[in-house]
Amino acid sequence: MSVSRPEQTQEPLRNVTKPSLSKICEGPGCDQILDEQPRGRPARYCSAACRVAAHRRRKRGPVIVEVHFGSASTRNRREDRSWMVKLRRDNDELIVVIGQTRDGAQRLASRLNDFLN
Ligand SMILES: [Zn+2]
């Protein structure tokens, strides 16, 4: 049985499209590849909707890290493990962890603060 080896091509590859720097839409969560503009300012967004969404995003407030004691979700936990850490921005909040000790929650909150700001 002969082992065939891939032939080495010395010739430069032809018909390969030159890699061009294609930008991706800057709209939040959008992954549209933007067509290259023949002239003028390069496009940043694929659509008016993405331009508006990006503008709203820039106007959001800062992320605030909060430590809370107790909640419905920690009802059956030991008292010393009833702390939670939340992130808040404007009217949105995200619970990062529940069931922590006070020290644990504080350490995490402090680390998140360092990381975010
Ligand atoms: Zn877009």
- Reading side by side through the largest sheet, how are the strands ordered? 1-2-3
Strand/helix succession: HEEEH
Biggest pleated-sheet summary: 3 strands, antiparallel
What would the principal axes of the Cα set say about the shape? Answer: elongated
Q: What is bound: which ligands?
A: zinc ion
Number of helices: 2
The tally of strands reads: 3
Percent strand equals 15-25%
Region (Disordered): 1-20
Commentary on this structure:
This protein is α+β, with helices and mostly antiparallel strands and 117 residues long. It has two domains: 22-59, no CATH class; 64-116, no CATH class. It has helices spanning 48-58, 102-116, and strands at residues 64-69, 83-89, 92-100. A three-stranded antiparallel sheet has the order 1-2-3, with helices on one face. The longest helix has 15 residues, at 102-116. It is elongated. The structure holds zinc ion.
Write the layout of secondary structure elements.
Elements: H1 48-58, E1 64-69, E2 83-89, E3 92-100, H2 102-116
Antiparallel strand pairs: 1-2, 2-3
Bound molecules: zinc ion.
Region (Disordered): 1-20
InterPro entries: ABATE_dom_sf
What key phrases describe this protein's structure?
about 120 residues; alpha+beta; 2 domains; three-stranded antiparallel beta sheet; 2 helices; elongated; binds zinc ion; ABATE_dom_sf
Summarize the structure.
The chain has two helices and three strands, in the order H-E-E-E-H.
